[in-house]
Protein backbone atom coordinates (compact mmCIF):
# COMPACT_ATOMS: atom_id res chain seq x y z
CA UNK A 1 0.00 0.00 0.00
CA UNK A 2 1.14 3.51 -0.84
CA UNK A 3 0.18 6.53 1.25
CA UNK A 4 0.13 10.20 0.40
CA UNK A 5 -0.90 13.21 2.46
CA UNK A 6 -2.27 16.62 1.57
CA UNK A 7 -0.61 19.09 3.93
CA UNK A 8 -2.66 22.02 2.59
CA UNK A 9 -5.90 20.31 3.58
CA UNK A 10 -4.55 18.99 6.92
CA UNK A 11 -6.00 20.74 9.99
CA UNK A 12 -3.50 19.27 12.45
CA UNK A 13 -6.00 17.18 14.41
CA UNK A 14 -3.31 14.62 15.25
CA UNK A 15 -5.83 11.80 14.72
CA UNK A 16 -3.55 9.98 12.27
CA UNK A 17 -0.70 10.00 14.80
CA UNK A 18 -3.05 8.71 17.48
CA UNK A 19 -4.11 5.74 15.31
CA UNK A 20 -0.85 4.94 13.48
CA UNK A 21 2.10 6.42 15.31
CA UNK A 22 4.81 4.74 13.27
CA UNK A 23 3.37 5.89 9.96
CA UNK A 24 2.38 9.50 10.68
CA UNK A 25 3.82 12.26 12.79
CA UNK A 26 3.25 16.01 12.97
CA UNK A 27 5.62 18.59 11.56
CA UNK A 28 6.51 21.34 14.08
CA UNK A 29 3.90 23.47 12.26
CA UNK A 30 1.26 21.05 13.56
CA UNK A 31 0.37 19.54 10.21
CA UNK A 32 0.89 15.96 9.13
CA UNK A 33 4.29 14.50 8.40
CA UNK A 34 4.36 11.20 6.55
CA UNK A 35 7.01 8.92 8.08
CA UNK A 36 6.48 5.83 5.97
CA UNK A 37 5.12 6.08 2.43
CA UNK A 38 4.74 2.33 1.99
CA UNK A 39 3.82 0.82 5.37
CA UNK A 40 4.39 -2.91 6.01
CA UNK A 41 1.55 -5.40 6.23
CA UNK A 42 1.82 -5.19 10.02
CA UNK A 43 0.86 -1.51 9.95
CA UNK A 44 -1.86 -1.96 7.40
CA UNK A 45 -4.90 -2.01 9.71
CA UNK A 46 -3.69 0.95 11.77
CA UNK A 47 -2.92 2.93 8.62
CA UNK A 48 -6.37 2.31 7.17
CA UNK A 49 -7.98 3.34 10.48
CA UNK A 50 -5.90 6.52 10.51
CA UNK A 51 -6.88 7.36 6.93
CA UNK A 52 -10.56 6.69 7.62
CA UNK A 53 -10.43 8.95 10.69
CA UNK A 54 -8.73 11.92 9.12
CA UNK A 55 -11.43 14.57 9.63
CA UNK A 56 -10.65 16.26 6.29
CA UNK A 57 -9.66 13.26 4.08
CA UNK A 58 -6.09 14.53 3.79
CA UNK A 59 -4.73 10.96 3.66
CA UNK A 60 -4.96 8.92 0.45
CA UNK A 61 -4.36 5.20 0.33
CA UNK A 62 -3.41 3.52 -2.92
CA UNK A 63 -4.04 -0.12 -2.11
CA UNK A 64 -3.04 -1.62 -5.46
CA UNK B 1 -38.48 25.10 6.37
CA UNK B 2 -41.00 27.85 7.08
CA UNK B 3 -40.47 30.94 9.16
CA UNK B 4 -42.90 29.74 11.79
CA UNK B 5 -40.46 30.13 14.66
CA UNK B 6 -40.35 33.85 14.00
CA UNK B 7 -44.11 34.24 13.79
CA UNK B 8 -44.52 31.93 16.74
CA UNK B 9 -47.35 29.97 15.12
CA UNK B 10 -45.98 26.44 15.59
CA UNK B 11 -43.07 26.95 17.95
CA UNK B 12 -45.18 25.61 20.77
CA UNK B 13 -45.53 22.21 19.14
CA UNK B 14 -41.87 21.76 18.19
CA UNK B 15 -39.39 20.36 20.71
CA UNK B 16 -36.89 22.85 22.06
CA UNK B 17 -33.23 21.88 21.66
CA UNK B 18 -30.79 21.01 23.03
CA UNK B 19 -32.54 18.40 25.20
CA UNK B 20 -31.21 17.58 28.67
CA UNK B 21 -30.19 14.29 30.27
CA UNK B 22 -32.47 14.37 33.30
CA UNK B 23 -34.21 11.09 32.34
CA UNK B 24 -30.96 9.15 32.48
CA UNK B 25 -27.89 11.13 33.53
CA UNK B 26 -25.26 8.66 32.29
CA UNK B 27 -26.63 8.61 28.76
CA UNK B 28 -27.16 11.03 25.91
CA UNK B 29 -30.74 12.40 25.87
CA UNK B 30 -32.94 9.31 25.67
CA UNK B 31 -35.32 10.94 23.20
CA UNK B 32 -32.70 10.49 20.45
CA UNK B 33 -33.51 6.82 20.01
CA UNK B 34 -37.14 7.45 19.06
CA UNK B 35 -36.20 10.46 16.94
CA UNK B 36 -33.69 8.43 14.96
CA UNK B 37 -36.43 5.90 14.18
CA UNK B 38 -39.28 8.35 13.51
CA UNK B 39 -37.75 11.60 12.32
CA UNK B 40 -33.96 11.40 11.96
CA UNK B 41 -33.92 14.89 10.46
CA UNK B 42 -36.21 16.66 12.89
CA UNK B 43 -37.56 20.17 12.84
CA UNK B 44 -36.87 21.69 16.26
CA UNK B 45 -36.57 25.08 17.93
CA UNK B 46 -33.06 26.12 18.90
CA UNK B 47 -33.37 27.39 22.48
CA UNK B 48 -30.90 30.28 22.34
CA UNK B 49 -32.20 31.85 19.12
CA UNK B 50 -35.85 30.79 19.21
CA UNK B 51 -35.49 29.90 15.53
CA UNK B 52 -36.13 26.62 13.80
CA UNK B 53 -33.26 24.28 13.02
CA UNK B 54 -32.78 20.68 11.95
CA UNK B 55 -31.67 18.18 14.61
CA UNK B 56 -29.74 15.22 13.17
CA UNK B 57 -29.58 11.90 15.01
CA UNK B 58 -28.09 9.51 12.41
CA UNK B 59 -24.35 8.87 12.42
CA UNK B 60 -24.14 9.10 8.62
CA UNK B 61 -25.82 12.52 8.52
CA UNK B 62 -23.75 14.04 11.33
CA UNK B 63 -20.56 12.80 9.69
CA UNK B 64 -21.64 14.16 6.32
CA UNK B 65 -22.57 17.60 7.69
CA UNK B 66 -19.44 18.06 9.81
CA UNK B 67 -17.26 16.93 6.91
CA UNK B 68 -18.90 19.23 4.35
CA UNK B 69 -17.11 22.59 3.83
CA UNK B 70 -20.37 24.10 2.55
CA UNK B 71 -21.82 23.64 6.06
CA UNK B 72 -20.63 26.84 7.70
CA UNK B 73 -19.48 27.58 11.26
CA UNK B 74 -19.79 31.32 10.68
CA UNK B 75 -21.58 32.70 13.74
CA UNK B 76 -22.43 35.94 11.90
CA UNK B 77 -24.65 34.08 9.43
CA UNK B 78 -28.26 34.85 10.51
CA UNK B 79 -29.19 31.16 10.24
CA UNK B 80 -26.41 29.97 12.57
CA UNK B 81 -27.95 28.11 15.54
CA UNK B 82 -26.06 29.77 18.42
CA UNK B 83 -25.63 27.79 21.61
CA UNK B 84 -24.94 30.90 23.69
CA UNK B 85 -27.11 33.96 24.22
CA UNK B 86 -26.13 36.43 21.52
CA UNK B 87 -28.37 39.45 20.82
CA UNK B 88 -28.92 39.48 17.05
CA UNK B 89 -28.16 43.20 16.66
CA UNK B 90 -24.75 42.56 18.28
CA UNK B 91 -23.72 39.88 15.75
CA UNK B 92 -21.52 42.15 13.61
CA UNK B 93 -19.62 43.48 16.64
CA UNK B 94 -18.86 40.40 18.70
CA UNK B 95 -15.29 39.03 18.62
CA UNK B 96 -16.16 35.40 17.91
CA UNK B 97 -13.60 32.65 18.50
CA UNK B 98 -12.21 30.83 15.46
CA UNK B 99 -14.46 27.88 16.34
CA UNK B 100 -17.20 30.15 14.94
CA UNK B 101 -15.41 31.10 11.69
CA UNK B 102 -14.91 29.55 8.25
CA UNK B 103 -11.78 29.42 6.11
CA UNK B 104 -9.73 31.45 5.39
CA UNK B 105 -10.14 33.33 8.74
CA UNK B 106 -10.45 30.00 10.56
CA UNK B 107 -7.39 28.51 8.85
CA UNK B 108 -5.04 31.38 9.74
CA UNK B 109 -5.98 31.27 13.43
CA UNK B 110 -6.07 27.50 13.74
CA UNK B 111 -2.62 27.26 12.20
CA UNK B 112 -1.34 29.57 14.94
CA UNK B 113 -2.30 27.04 17.64
CA UNK B 114 -1.83 23.57 16.15
CA UNK B 115 1.97 23.63 16.55
CA UNK B 116 1.30 23.69 20.30
CA UNK B 117 -0.56 20.37 20.35
CA UNK B 118 1.59 18.08 18.23
CA UNK B 119 2.24 14.52 19.35
CA UNK B 120 5.78 15.55 20.33
CA UNK B 121 4.66 18.47 22.49
CA UNK B 122 2.09 16.31 24.23
CA UNK B 123 4.66 13.60 24.91
CA UNK B 124 6.88 16.32 26.41
CA UNK B 125 4.04 17.52 28.64
CA UNK B 126 3.21 14.05 29.95
CA UNK B 127 5.76 13.85 32.82
CA UNK B 128 4.47 17.19 34.10
CA UNK B 129 0.86 15.94 33.90
CA UNK B 130 1.92 12.90 35.91
CA UNK B 131 3.56 15.09 38.57
CA UNK B 132 0.48 17.31 38.84
CA UNK B 133 -1.82 14.29 39.15
CA UNK B 134 0.42 12.63 41.74
CA UNK B 135 0.47 15.77 43.86
CA UNK B 136 -3.32 16.07 43.75
CA UNK B 137 -3.77 12.44 44.72
CA UNK B 138 -1.25 12.82 47.57
CA UNK B 139 -3.38 15.71 48.78
CA UNK B 140 -6.58 13.63 48.54
CA UNK B 141 -4.99 10.78 50.48
CA UNK B 142 -3.64 13.13 53.14
CA UNK B 143 -7.07 14.69 53.57
CA UNK B 144 -8.92 11.37 53.73
CA UNK B 145 -12.35 10.61 52.28
CA UNK B 146 -14.97 11.64 51.61
CA UNK B 147 -13.76 14.37 49.25
CA UNK B 148 -15.20 16.17 46.24
CA UNK B 149 -13.26 14.79 43.28
CA UNK B 150 -14.27 17.74 41.11
CA UNK B 151 -12.58 20.25 43.42
CA UNK B 152 -9.66 17.98 44.36
CA UNK B 153 -8.70 16.54 40.99
CA UNK B 154 -10.93 17.13 37.96
CA UNK B 155 -10.74 20.95 37.93
CA UNK B 156 -7.18 21.48 39.26
CA UNK B 157 -5.35 19.13 36.87
CA UNK B 158 -6.34 20.67 33.53
CA UNK B 159 -6.41 24.22 34.89
CA UNK B 160 -2.93 23.99 36.43
CA UNK B 161 -1.51 22.46 33.27
CA UNK B 162 -3.17 25.12 31.16
CA UNK B 163 -1.81 27.86 33.32
CA UNK B 164 1.71 26.48 32.88
CA UNK B 165 1.24 25.85 29.18
CA UNK B 166 0.10 29.39 28.47
CA UNK B 167 3.04 30.71 30.45
CA UNK B 168 1.04 32.34 33.22
CA UNK B 169 2.68 32.47 36.63
CA UNK B 170 1.26 29.60 38.65
CA UNK B 171 0.47 32.16 41.33
CA UNK B 172 -2.23 33.22 38.86
CA UNK B 173 -3.74 29.77 38.91
CA UNK B 174 -6.54 31.31 40.95
CA UNK B 175 -7.75 33.11 37.79
CA UNK B 176 -8.03 29.83 35.92
CA UNK B 177 -9.49 28.00 38.89
CA UNK B 178 -11.97 30.77 39.58
CA UNK B 179 -12.85 30.94 35.92
CA UNK B 180 -13.47 27.19 35.66
CA UNK B 181 -15.32 27.01 38.97
CA UNK B 182 -17.52 30.02 38.26
CA UNK B 183 -18.38 29.06 34.72
CA UNK B 184 -19.15 25.46 35.76
CA UNK B 185 -20.66 26.34 39.14
CA UNK B 186 -24.29 25.52 39.79
CA UNK B 187 -24.81 28.52 42.05
CA UNK B 188 -23.00 31.04 39.85
CA UNK B 189 -25.21 33.96 38.89
CA UNK B 190 -25.17 35.38 35.34
CA UNK B 191 -23.25 38.36 36.74
CA UNK B 192 -20.65 36.11 38.35
CA UNK B 193 -20.11 34.25 35.07
CA UNK B 194 -19.90 37.51 33.09
CA UNK B 195 -17.48 38.83 35.73
CA UNK B 196 -15.26 35.77 35.50
CA UNK B 197 -15.16 36.05 31.71
CA UNK B 198 -14.30 39.76 31.85
CA UNK B 199 -11.61 39.07 34.45
CA UNK B 200 -10.13 36.32 32.26
CA UNK B 201 -10.14 38.60 29.20
CA UNK B 202 -8.36 41.37 31.05
CA UNK B 203 -5.85 38.92 32.46
CA UNK B 204 -5.10 37.39 29.02
CA UNK B 205 -4.90 40.82 27.42
CA UNK B 206 -2.20 41.92 29.90
CA UNK B 207 -0.43 38.58 29.76
CA UNK B 208 -0.15 38.71 25.96
CA UNK B 209 1.15 42.28 26.11
CA UNK B 210 3.78 41.07 28.60
CA UNK B 211 4.68 38.00 26.46
CA UNK B 212 5.09 40.21 23.40
CA UNK B 213 7.57 42.40 25.30
CA UNK B 214 9.38 39.67 27.24
CA UNK B 215 8.91 36.35 25.47
CA UNK B 216 9.47 33.13 27.40
CA UNK B 217 9.30 29.40 26.58
CA UNK B 218 5.53 29.14 26.46
CA UNK B 219 2.52 28.95 24.19
CA UNK B 220 1.49 32.59 24.34
CA UNK B 221 5.05 33.84 23.75
CA UNK B 222 5.44 31.59 20.72
CA UNK B 223 2.09 32.69 19.30
CA UNK B 224 2.87 36.35 19.98
CA UNK B 225 6.21 35.96 18.22
CA UNK B 226 4.44 34.74 15.08
CA UNK B 227 2.03 37.66 15.01
CA UNK B 228 4.20 39.96 12.82
CA UNK B 229 4.12 37.28 10.08
CA UNK B 230 0.31 37.36 10.04
CA UNK B 231 -0.80 40.61 8.42
CA UNK B 232 -4.48 39.86 9.06
CA UNK B 233 -4.14 39.34 12.82
CA UNK B 234 -3.63 41.78 15.68
CA UNK B 235 -3.28 41.76 19.47
CA UNK B 236 -7.05 41.44 20.03
CA UNK B 237 -7.14 38.36 17.80
CA UNK B 238 -4.53 36.75 20.05
CA UNK B 239 -6.65 37.52 23.10
CA UNK B 240 -9.62 35.87 21.36
CA UNK B 241 -7.49 32.82 20.48
CA UNK B 242 -6.20 32.54 24.05
CA UNK B 243 -9.71 32.86 25.45
CA UNK B 244 -10.94 30.07 23.16
CA UNK B 245 -8.11 27.82 24.34
CA UNK B 246 -8.95 28.48 27.99
CA UNK B 247 -12.68 27.88 27.46
CA UNK B 248 -12.23 24.81 25.28
CA UNK B 249 -9.37 23.27 27.23
CA UNK B 250 -10.26 23.43 30.92
CA UNK B 251 -13.89 22.57 31.69
CA UNK B 252 -14.09 19.96 28.96
CA UNK B 253 -11.33 17.71 30.25
CA UNK B 254 -12.40 18.40 33.85
CA UNK B 255 -15.91 17.18 33.04
CA UNK B 256 -14.69 13.98 31.40
CA UNK B 257 -12.51 13.32 34.47
CA UNK B 258 -15.43 13.65 36.89
CA UNK B 259 -18.11 11.93 34.78
CA UNK B 260 -15.61 9.30 33.65
CA UNK B 261 -14.71 8.45 37.24
CA UNK B 262 -18.41 7.91 37.94
CA UNK B 263 -18.82 5.73 34.84
CA UNK B 264 -15.79 3.57 35.69
CA UNK B 265 -16.95 3.16 39.30
CA UNK B 266 -20.36 2.09 38.02
CA UNK B 267 -18.67 -0.63 35.92
CA UNK B 268 -16.37 -2.29 38.47
CA UNK B 269 -15.56 -5.42 36.40
CA UNK B 270 -14.37 -3.34 33.48
CA UNK B 271 -12.46 -1.06 35.82
CA UNK B 272 -10.71 -4.12 37.28
CA UNK B 273 -9.72 -5.23 33.79
CA UNK B 274 -8.23 -1.83 33.01
CA UNK B 275 -6.38 -1.82 36.33
CA UNK B 276 -4.88 -5.24 35.61
CA UNK B 277 -4.03 -4.43 31.99
CA UNK B 278 -3.26 -0.72 31.44
CA UNK B 279 -2.91 -1.34 27.69
CA UNK B 280 -6.74 -1.40 27.68
CA UNK B 281 -6.89 2.18 28.95
CA UNK B 282 -6.59 4.14 25.65
CA UNK B 283 -9.46 2.10 24.13
CA UNK B 284 -11.49 2.51 27.33
CA UNK B 285 -11.00 6.29 27.13
CA UNK B 286 -12.19 6.39 23.50
CA UNK B 287 -15.29 4.47 24.61
CA UNK B 288 -15.75 6.89 27.51
CA UNK B 289 -15.57 9.86 25.11
CA UNK B 290 -18.13 8.22 22.83
CA UNK B 291 -20.39 7.21 25.72
CA UNK B 292 -20.37 10.64 27.40
CA UNK B 293 -20.24 12.90 24.30
CA UNK B 294 -20.09 15.88 26.68
CA UNK B 295 -20.25 18.45 23.86
CA UNK B 296 -23.17 16.78 22.08
CA UNK B 297 -24.74 20.06 20.96
CA UNK B 298 -21.53 22.03 20.31
CA UNK B 299 -21.36 20.84 16.70
CA UNK B 300 -23.77 23.18 14.92
CA UNK B 301 -23.62 24.53 11.38
CA UNK B 302 -25.57 26.66 8.89
CA UNK B 303 -25.99 25.54 5.27
CA UNK B 304 -24.47 27.78 2.58
CA UNK B 305 -26.05 25.66 -0.14
CA UNK B 306 -28.73 22.99 -0.36
CA UNK B 307 -27.56 19.53 0.64
CA UNK B 308 -29.21 16.12 0.60
CA UNK B 309 -28.89 13.80 3.61
CA UNK B 310 -28.67 9.99 3.74
CA UNK B 311 -32.44 9.41 3.80
CA UNK B 312 -33.05 11.81 0.89
CA UNK B 313 -34.00 14.77 3.16
CA UNK B 314 -32.93 18.23 2.04
CA UNK B 315 -31.39 21.00 4.11
CA UNK B 316 -31.72 24.33 2.32
CA UNK B 317 -29.28 27.17 2.11
CA UNK B 318 -29.52 29.41 5.17
CA UNK B 319 -30.97 26.76 7.48
CA UNK B 320 -29.39 25.87 10.81
CA UNK B 321 -28.34 22.32 11.67
CA UNK B 322 -27.68 20.74 15.06
CA UNK B 323 -25.31 17.92 14.08
CA UNK B 324 -25.64 16.20 17.46
CA UNK B 325 -22.41 14.28 17.93
CA UNK B 326 -23.81 12.41 20.95
CA UNK B 327 -26.77 11.21 18.90
CA UNK B 328 -24.37 10.04 16.19
CA UNK B 329 -22.18 8.32 18.77
CA UNK B 330 -25.24 6.43 20.02
CA UNK B 331 -26.52 5.37 16.60
CA UNK B 332 -26.86 1.56 16.78
CA UNK B 333 -26.18 1.36 13.04
CA UNK B 334 -22.59 2.40 13.87
CA UNK B 335 -22.22 1.26 17.51
CA UNK B 336 -24.40 -1.76 18.40
CA UNK B 337 -26.06 -1.52 21.84
CA UNK B 338 -24.83 2.06 22.19
CA UNK B 339 -26.20 2.37 25.76
CA UNK B 340 -23.69 -0.27 26.89
CA UNK B 341 -20.42 1.14 28.17
CA UNK B 342 -18.02 -1.45 26.78
CA UNK B 343 -14.27 -0.91 26.90
CA UNK B 344 -13.79 -3.76 24.40
CA UNK B 345 -15.91 -2.13 21.73
CA UNK B 346 -14.02 -0.37 18.98
CA UNK B 347 -15.15 3.22 19.54
CA UNK B 348 -13.05 4.36 16.57
CA UNK B 349 -14.87 6.91 14.45
CA UNK B 350 -16.70 8.56 17.36
CA UNK B 351 -17.27 12.28 16.91
CA UNK B 352 -17.03 13.48 20.53
CA UNK B 353 -14.15 15.66 19.29
CA UNK B 354 -16.21 16.59 16.20
CA UNK B 355 -15.16 15.88 12.62
CA UNK B 356 -14.15 18.03 9.65
CA UNK B 357 -11.99 21.12 9.69
CA UNK B 358 -13.05 22.13 13.22
CA UNK B 359 -12.14 18.82 14.79
CA UNK B 360 -10.78 19.50 18.26
CA UNK B 361 -7.08 20.41 18.11
CA UNK B 362 -6.80 19.57 21.82
CA UNK B 363 -7.96 15.96 21.36
CA UNK B 364 -4.57 14.36 21.89
CA UNK B 365 -3.83 16.60 24.88
CA UNK B 366 -7.15 15.59 26.45
CA UNK B 367 -6.50 11.91 25.66
CA UNK B 368 -3.09 12.08 27.34
CA UNK B 369 -4.40 13.87 30.43
CA UNK B 370 -7.28 11.40 30.78
CA UNK B 371 -4.90 8.47 30.46
CA UNK B 372 -2.63 9.84 33.19
CA UNK B 373 -5.53 10.71 35.50
CA UNK B 374 -7.40 7.41 35.24
CA UNK B 375 -4.24 5.31 35.06
CA UNK B 376 -3.05 6.88 38.33
CA UNK B 377 -6.26 7.44 40.28
CA UNK B 378 -7.58 3.88 40.22
CA UNK B 379 -4.21 2.26 40.97
CA UNK B 380 -3.20 4.63 43.74
CA UNK B 381 -6.65 4.55 45.39
CA UNK B 382 -7.85 1.02 44.57
CA UNK B 383 -10.71 1.23 47.07
CA UNK B 384 -12.17 4.36 45.49
CA UNK B 385 -15.98 4.42 45.51
CA UNK B 386 -18.84 6.88 45.08
CA UNK B 387 -20.04 8.43 48.34
CA UNK B 388 -23.51 9.09 46.85
CA UNK B 389 -25.75 7.11 44.47
CA UNK B 390 -24.78 7.69 40.82
CA UNK B 391 -28.28 8.78 39.79
CA UNK B 392 -28.43 11.43 42.52
CA UNK B 393 -25.21 13.26 41.68
CA UNK B 394 -25.36 16.99 40.86
CA UNK B 395 -25.16 16.77 37.06
CA UNK B 396 -24.88 19.92 34.92
CA UNK B 397 -28.15 19.34 33.10
CA UNK B 398 -28.34 22.83 31.68
CA UNK B 399 -24.70 23.39 30.79
CA UNK B 400 -23.23 23.60 27.30
CA UNK B 401 -20.54 21.07 28.27
CA UNK B 402 -22.10 18.24 30.26
CA UNK B 403 -20.40 17.54 33.56
CA UNK B 404 -20.71 17.27 37.33
CA UNK B 405 -20.77 20.12 39.83
CA UNK B 406 -19.46 17.81 42.53
CA UNK B 407 -18.45 14.17 42.81
CA UNK B 408 -18.33 12.91 46.40
CA UNK B 409 -15.97 9.93 46.62
CA UNK B 410 -14.38 7.98 49.44
CA UNK B 411 -12.21 4.88 49.90
C1 LIG C 1 -12.30 15.73 26.45
C2 LIG C 1 -12.13 16.96 26.22
C3 LIG C 1 -12.59 17.68 24.98
C4 LIG C 1 -13.69 17.48 24.18
C5 LIG C 1 -14.78 16.41 24.33
C6 LIG C 1 -13.63 18.48 23.12
C7 LIG C 1 -14.55 18.59 22.09
C8 LIG C 1 -14.52 19.52 21.08
C9 LIG C 1 -15.49 19.63 20.01
C10 LIG C 1 -16.73 18.76 19.86
C11 LIG C 1 -15.10 20.67 19.20
C12 LIG C 1 -15.68 21.07 17.88
C13 LIG C 1 -16.75 22.03 17.69
C14 LIG C 1 -17.16 22.11 16.24
O1 LIG C 1 -16.98 21.17 15.42
O2 LIG C 1 -17.73 23.13 15.88
C15 LIG C 1 -13.89 21.21 19.78
C16 LIG C 1 -13.21 22.28 19.25
C17 LIG C 1 -12.11 22.85 19.85
N1 LIG C 1 -11.44 22.37 20.96
FE1 LIG C 1 -11.89 20.74 22.05
N2 LIG C 1 -12.52 19.25 23.29
C18 LIG C 1 -11.85 18.79 24.41
C19 LIG C 1 -10.66 19.29 24.91
C20 LIG C 1 -9.96 20.32 24.39
C21 LIG C 1 -8.68 20.76 24.86
C22 LIG C 1 -7.88 20.14 26.01
C23 LIG C 1 -8.35 21.83 24.12
C24 LIG C 1 -7.11 22.62 24.30
C25 LIG C 1 -6.30 23.04 23.76
C26 LIG C 1 -9.40 22.06 23.15
C27 LIG C 1 -9.43 23.07 22.19
C28 LIG C 1 -10.37 23.21 21.20
C29 LIG C 1 -10.38 24.29 20.22
C30 LIG C 1 -9.37 25.42 20.12
C31 LIG C 1 -11.48 24.06 19.37
C32 LIG C 1 -11.90 24.88 18.15
C33 LIG C 1 -11.33 24.23 16.92
C34 LIG C 1 -11.76 24.82 15.60
O3 LIG C 1 -12.82 25.44 15.53
O4 LIG C 1 -11.02 24.67 14.62
N3 LIG C 1 -10.37 21.11 23.33
N4 LIG C 1 -13.56 20.49 20.90
S1 LIG D 1 -5.69 13.09 10.71
FE1 LIG D 1 -5.75 14.36 8.86
S2 LIG D 1 -6.08 16.45 9.61
FE2 LIG D 1 -5.43 15.24 11.36
S3 LIG D 1 -3.22 15.55 11.43
FE3 LIG D 1 -3.57 13.68 10.26
S4 LIG D 1 -3.67 14.36 8.13
FE4 LIG D 1 -3.90 16.19 9.39
From TrEMBL, chain A:
Organism equals: Streptomyces luteolifulvus
Q: Name one GO molecular function term.
A: iron ion binding
The role this protein plays is: Ferredoxins are iron-sulfur proteins that transfer electrons in a wide variety of metabolic reactions.
Spell out the PANTHER family in the cross-references. FERREDOXIN (PTHR36923:SF3)
Residue stretches spanning the membrane:
none
Query: Record's InterPro entries?
Result: 3Fe4S_ferredoxin, Fe-S_cluster_ET
Highest taxon above the source species:
Bacteria
Obligatory cofactor(s): [3Fe-4S] cluster
Q: Which UniProt keywords apply?
A: 3Fe-4S, Electron transport, Iron, Iron-sulfur, Metal-binding, Transport
The protein, known as: Ferredoxin
From TrEMBL, chain B:
Keyword field contains Cytoplasm: no
Is-annotated flag, keyword ATP-binding? no
In its UniProt record, a GO molecular function of this protein is:
oxidoreductase activity, acting on paired donors, with incorporation or reduction of molecular oxygen
Matching InterPro entries: Cyt_P450 (IPR001128), Cyt_P450_B (IPR002397), Cyt_P450_CS (IPR017972), Cyt_P450_sf (IPR036396)
The alphabetical list of record keywords is: Heme, Iron, Metal-binding, Monooxygenase, Oxidoreductase
Belongs to which family?
Belongs to the cytochrome P450 family.
Report what the protein is called. Answer: Cytochrome P450
Q: Provide the species name.
A: Streptomyces luteolifulvus
Specify the taxonomic lineage.
Bacteria, Bacillati, Actinomycetota, Actinomycetes, Kitasatosporales
Amino acid sequence: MRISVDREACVGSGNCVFFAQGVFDQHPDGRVLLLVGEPDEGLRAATLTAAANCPVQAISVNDA
Amino acid sequence: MTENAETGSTTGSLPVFPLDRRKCPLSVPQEYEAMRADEPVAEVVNRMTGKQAWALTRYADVRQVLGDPSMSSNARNPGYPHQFQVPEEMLPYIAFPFAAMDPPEHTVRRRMVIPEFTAKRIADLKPRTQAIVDARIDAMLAKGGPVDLVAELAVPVPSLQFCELLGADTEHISYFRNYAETTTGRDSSMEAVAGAIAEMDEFLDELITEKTRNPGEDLLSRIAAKLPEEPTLGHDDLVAIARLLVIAGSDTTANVISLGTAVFLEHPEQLDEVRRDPSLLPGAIEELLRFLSILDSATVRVATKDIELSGGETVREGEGVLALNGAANWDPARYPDPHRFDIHRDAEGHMAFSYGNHMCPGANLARMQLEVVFGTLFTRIPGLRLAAPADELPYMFDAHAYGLHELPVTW
